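Hi Y.,

Following your request, here is the sequence exactly as I used it, all 147 residues.
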Amino acid sequence: MPITASASVETFQTANGKQWRLAGTDDNGLRYFVPAHLEPANVLRLAWAKETDLAEALGPLTPIAVCRCDDPDVDPYECEADDCTYSFSELNPFGQSARPVNVGSAEVSRKCGTCGWKTSVWHVDDGSADQELHEHISREHTERSAA
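Below is the corresponding structure, written out as tokens. Let me know if you'd prefer a different format.
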């Protein structure tokens, strides 16, 4: 029966502290594991351990969270690992983040169509930027045209 290799790194632990990495799953949903320190691609599939055999020999496997904040395309704010490194790129002034440290992460700004004035970029997408633009237009442009 063909086994589909796991696309993500999932680590499990037995009651005695041994850690196992999910290597793949067959068509019937049976999971296969390798010791957590090994890369499944480097281990012959013949040596992958069935979950049922591991559970029988070592007890049930429970999932554990492993910090992967340093990996690309991983959201560190979603990390629930006990060993989290708290690697937030925007907090590292020497990092290769897409934006500078002093720029807000929720950049929502609006531009006045009359004069080109921009709202502050410290808004979240909750309508407050629209409100600031409305206040600007009311204060700067409505009063002048009424006078």
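The first strand starts at residue 3 and ends at 5.

Thanks again,
Q.
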